Amino acid sequence: MTEANDFKLVSTYQPAGDQPRAIQGLVESFRDGKKKLCLVGVTGSGKTYTMASFIKEVGRPTLVLTHNKTLAAQLYREFREFFPENAVEYFVSYYDYYQPEAYVPTSDTYIEKDASINDEIDRLRLRATSSLLERRDVIIVSSVSCIYGLGSPEEYRHSLIMLDRGVELDRNTVMRQLLHIQYSRNDLDFSRGNFRVRGDTLEIFPAYRQEGVRVEWFGDEIEKISVFDPLTGKVIAPKDRVVIYPAKHFITSPPKLEEAVKRIEAELVERVKAFNEQGKPLEAERIEQRTRYDLEMLREMGYCNGIENYSRHLTGRKAGEAPACLLDYFPEDFVVMVDESHQTMPQVRGMYEGDRARKQNLVDFGFRLPSALDNRPLNFTEFETMVDSVMWVSATPADYELDRAEARVEQIIRPTGLLDPEVEVRPVTNQIEDLLGEIRERMGLDERVLVTTLTKKMAEDLSDYLSDMDVNVAYLHSEIQTIERVEIIRDLRKGQYDVLVGVNLLREGLDMPEVSLVAILDADKEGFLRNARSLIQTMGRAARNLNGRAILYADKITDSMQTALDETKRRREIQEAYNREHNIQPTSIRKAVHDIIEREFDEIDEEERMLAELEKEVQFKKGASRKEKIETVRKAMLDAARNLEFEKAALLRDRLQEIEQGAEAVFSKNGEKDSAGKDGKKGDGKRGKKAPFRPRSGTRGQNNSRRRGGAGGGNGNRQQQAAYDADMLDPGVTITQAAGRGGKGGAGGNRRRANGGASGNRHHAAGSGNGNSRSASGGNSRSGGGNSRSASGGNRAASGGNSRSASGGNRTSSGGNSRSAGNANSAGSSRNSGNRQKQGGGNQKRSNTSSSGARSKSRGGARRGGGRSKSEG
């Protein structure tokens, strides 16, 4: 382990405002033996820099604990910038989706564990634990995942493999050791957690790194060790020594595993006997069958699904003893910083009881042995016992922190001189129209807006409405995946979105200097989302901008609102007095926009790179005709195919088909170079490049990513839907009329449902072939795998005009999501040249369906695998 414990803080600015006093007060208190500290810092006052300065002065391994993954990712990025030479790591739950094992006795329903692991986060978790074993200058930013059971640190330490150049060590021995620490041999697929053998060369891809390790033997002696790029094979740096850490946290040596199996069998015998004595033969049979299978897997493979449920036996712990967790990997003198402690501490307190309530049913009904109850997070008492030195950080600390703090430091003055935002209370009546006007004003100033609602459904519905009003908008709530959340925030800062709508994730800590307006809907609805602390935190998101302002929409001023208003007023008065005394002119915070979490690759960036290359490679003669341009692109496509550059050839093919249909011959990802701005006139395309509208997940029950082009213009690409959703239409409005109302520039658009025909029945056909349909003619098929739910020719059960597939719609194969569809007027004749889908295999589909004189034609052009499609007017 590295002995050096000096943290090197790198920053372009010096402490200012209240920061010097806060840093000095915290450090002196800590050195005086006060181990429970509290930093009360307003939003935007530079609390993170104060925390970093404290870490530098104290020089101890540090755990930064916070309550949600998005905030953890932001802190991870900030601390990496402050300490580029030290080990700053990220440790959160690695599940993108997690359905825990459960049993519902009332309905006799067993729910099997189902999870989707994020490979990138898994790598970061493994890197965090390996860093703790290697060095002391470590900062780990973590969610409450750090209090959940993890493999034993002692077993983890003893399982590492140390390889030194010049040492005699049999290659087969190293391979057996790699298999024991959960690496797999795979000579074809060289990916994380695998190794491969080529003669006297062993190549390992550590589970916690982005580079591979190549070990070369001469006889039984390790002749050369090097780190290399797994993609190109190019050597990055030679090494004299490398340490390979386990690919998983749960590692058990063969002797311990054998002992664990015996203990599990003994517990199983007791449990079966107990069930039989209670007259529960079904539960006895169930627990024996399930446990015997797991035991067989442990004997043969050394691993089984749900192995964590046997963690007590595998680690040799006693019943009821606290499990090993990330805190056990830290040295004894580590420091814990609890960011946004008013939220984080209650979350830590609540984890244990929720977990036990679920597992107790599994134990009582024979799905798990009683020892499974010891696979759990720490309870609050255990957490307090393990955390000796702690600093609570919050703008609104709770009573728990204030009562226990041995020293309290306040940080109200911002280094930039910015004041707390002005707050205005407005009536609920016409709040959405009023909000839309405020949004348009901020869009004109190139500033961003945050809107908070009370429910996820309200957030999604408001996003739909604002999108229809030609606003770049995304929503953010708990059902959005971890990585995508940070991408949405990054895109908001970059200007791809003007508005972000959320429920509870837009409160604490998010650093978005571009946000000048925070709107809180239904501010007078008392509850945890609208209490004084929540309101102060939410309003604080606008405190990093010179024009920061908060609007509370409410019909009355509640006690919580009054408390928040009074506290904001108090802080503004202190800040204004300081600025006058020191002659400070407030300035907005300026920060570069970065990807918050490092990633190994980005498919979108790769496609943009290829499009940029094509822009340079495919040159048209000045004044070339459309025919000549088509031939130029066709030749480039064939050349790319001959050179085995299939991704590039696919992009050229897509562009070729668009040129043949009348599009301009350019290679830009978001539409034509001269796409129009929001006023429908042609411009430079700056506002015409629209961000992807985020998936309608959660309450909508679907997950279709939709990307829409700029408004108006020659092509008619529209960010908003070409026709309003069925629930937004007035009865009696036909599809064609709706499309005309919905789009300035084109008739193509995405529709979830349709007002099917002239009669205007929203969801059901009227009974004859008059064009009524359940979903849009040219609508979006929700179900993947080739199923289409829309019908263009009227009611399926009606005589005449029966049709299974959408006229102009899409029957999507390979689970593809349709982004656009043409509209067919059921009373007349129309033509749709709209749907161009991204499908694997490169097949084109055409379908013609006639109904009561209506004729629509759909033409599909294949694109790269992935199941996406692009809108065309």
Write up what this structure looks like.
- This protein is an alpha/beta fold.
- The protein contains 21 helices and 31 strands.
- A seven-stranded parallel sheet has the order 3-8-2-17-18-1-19.
- Helix 7 packs antiparallel against helix 8 (281-301) and helix 16 (532-539) packs across helix 17 (559-582).
- The radius of gyration is 31 Å and the shape is globular.
- The chain starts with 18 loop residues before the first helix and ends with a strand.
Q: Secondary-structure map with pairings?
A:
Blueprint: H1 19-31, E1 36-41, H2 47-58, E2 62-65, H3 69-82, E3 87-91, E4 95-99, E5 102-104, E6 109-111, E7 114-117, H4 119-134, E8 138-142, H5 153-158, E9 161-164, H6 171-180, E10 184-185, E11 194-198, E12 201-204, E13 212-218, E14 221-228, E15 235-239, E16 241-244, H7 254-277, H8 281-301, H9 311-315, E17 335-339, H10 341-364, H11 380-386, E18 389-394, H12 399-404, E19 407-411, E20 422-426, H13 431-444, E21 448-452, H14 456-468, E22 473-476, H15 482-494, E23 499-502, E24 515-520, H16 532-539, E25 549-553, H17 559-582, H18 603-617, H19 626-642, H20 646-660, E26 692-693, E27 706-707, H21 735-742, E28 836-837, E29 846-851, E30 854-859, E31 869-870
Parallel strand pairs: 1-18, 1-19, 2-8, 2-17, 3-8, 10-11, 17-18, 20-25, 21-23, 21-24, 22-23, 24-25
Antiparallel strand pairs: 4-7, 5-6, 9-16, 11-12, 12-13, 13-14, 14-15, 26-27, 28-31, 29-30
